[in-house]
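User: I'm putting together a teaching handout on how multi-component assemblies are represented. Below are the sequence lines for each component of a complex, exactly as they appear in our records. Could you produce the 3D structure of the whole assembly as structure tokens, so the students can see both representations side by side? Please keep the chain order the same as the input.
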Amino acid sequence: MTTIKDVAKKAGVSVATVSRFLNDSGYVSAEAAKAVTAAVEELKYELNPIARSLNTKKSNLIGLILPDITNPFFPELARAVEDVALTYGYTVVLCNSDENPEKEKNYIETLKKKYIAGFIVTSNQLDAPHYANANVPIVALDRAINEKIPTVSSNNKEGAIMGTNALLERGCQHILFLRGPAELNPANDRYEGFMEAIQQSNAKYQVVTCPFHFAESQKIVEQVLKENPKIDGIFASSDVSAAGALKAASLVGTHVPNELQIIGFDGVAMGEMLSPGLTTVAQDVYKMGAIATRVLIKRIENKPIEQNFYEVPVKLIVRGTTRSVRE
Amino acid sequence: MTTIKDVAKKAGVSVATVSRFLNDSGYVSAEAAKAVTAAVEELKYELNPIARSLNTKKSNLIGLILPDITNPFFPELARAVEDVALTYGYTVVLCNSDENPEKEKNYIETLKKKYIAGFIVTSNQLDAPHYANANVPIVALDRAINEKIPTVSSNNKEGAIMGTNALLERGCQHILFLRGPAELNPANDRYEGFMEAIQQSNAKYQVVTCPFHFAESQKIVEQVLKENPKIDGIFASSDVSAAGALKAASLVGTHVPNELQIIGFDGVAMGEMLSPGLTTVAQDVYKMGAIATRVLIKRIENKPIEQNFYEVPVKLIVRGTTRSVRE
DNA sequence: ATATTGTGTGTAACCGGTTACACACCGAGA
DNA sequence: TCTCGGTGTGTAACCGGTTACACACAATAT
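Assistant: Of course. Below is the structure of the complete assembly, with chains in the same order as your input.
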């Protein structure tokens, strides 16, 4: 392995000069620069990032903390984060927190010892002290907000209004809203959006809380559908729940979309594969991840960031679980 | 930040003794051990892994190289790897290679500079020089085998035989096999298994190559189904293709499972959400990831490994795309 | 009594960089 | 001519650990 000393020797200068040149810090004469460039080239010198980190107390590692990569929402996010990180020369460390504050804390401590550059966090615990006191750049994704921590999320409320109106426009008279867990900020925003839109109509509605879990959702919806056959529209707070609802409908024997229309929320790939294809309010997850990463890197590199709160627009994707709009 | 020097001072010994005690290397007297333990405790000393790495040229980073975390097969794998890594004190770096040898090479070089401990790789390029010459522990997952590199994969051939027989036992007379890309080892093994099983029957069959991609598969199957309405069974080399086939059947108006039975391969969560639920030959992806990680860590820590090739059994999960077995 | 081996410990070099500081040089302004 | 600020450079300390080596001592073997 060739070191900075070898380069210095070959270039006929001191290691300080080499380091200054490499880091573009301090003065370096044109000749010295040339000599060093040549030496680096010839020796195929590559800087040792560990040695550098030991000094600077900085690395180019980014920690991605999310509840569970297995949740279909996160792979695309992770992909975006990794893609952007890579183009800026950063490396991504994957952390599955299971929403467990202890685990989160642990990841943070462990990685801080490695002089991690920053974190992208999807968590409900953002106000927890281990984040507030982390003393390392953080960007929050999708979830709760702390004024000091830049956040990027979807326009959840807007999306919920959009989805609700889509059902309304398609003639639904009695809508079942599958509300997500109350601890989740996005779920609350979606709920708000639904309420706002539904109350401006004169349709009937009904709200049921429902975890973002397929089998659970299916069971719950099956039950509700049996008890209340008048329901002709379901707006689910997540695609997974919507998939459960769709399955429940097929088990109960209700035809989708003729007797019952369903709209999900998220826009995960699975929606396309269902029969009929799932109409959904799609988040631009990739974009969210990409923005979050860019913002984080700006913070890491002490560049100014334009805003502290980024809201990524959502989009209605119409597929087979809804009918065409009545004129 | 408290350093080993602080601890040495407080314990009244030299840094060498502290280091020896911490690493359980060399001799340390009982008294010295006690004094150091107390000092560590009191000062809340935590070893700096970067400083250590600089010396030992080892870190506790594990690189997970996979084509694309977005592919539904990989999140569970990643989860398993991370879970096991965590319990052994390792940290996982996520690398999306897009099957691009240049990218793979790049990841390897970048991470080797960080003294990465080892890699878990899912790739078709395992014989490529950047792996052979990587000079760092590697475990291959799911894909190609190089005698020197420990590999864990599913029992693909066995699984294919199982799936084929499942269709046969359920009365299929004309089976369409959706063969995966020829570059993929597992796809070839599955093909072999199918051929072996089908040729021992007197059922008719037909093989079509089909990428592991939903929309493509759907289009291909739709075409084939129209040309050949006698097909009464489809065995897909992946769940995604199977989902495409299921959708194609519904578009063509063929009833599943009455007129056409479908079996997939993989066992991804999405299969359950389809209507009808997808019968599939399920891989134990989590187990594969877990085994691979344990094997890698053994290699990293120079412990003996029992075998060089681990085959994880697959399992038939029967859901709604197949009928019950005729007596 | 002497050689040998096993324990136990500290000093200092080293891993491969960064950077504070001292110093030298040069041209411009007083 | 003297002073001063901007350039350019090298020496050496430092980041926080690991470890080769030298040395000391006690217990056993010869």
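A couple of points students might notice: Chain A touches chain B through 46 residues (CB under 8 Å). Residues 13-17, 20, 26-29, 32, 51, 53-57 of chain A lie near DNA strand D (CB under 10 Å from a C1').
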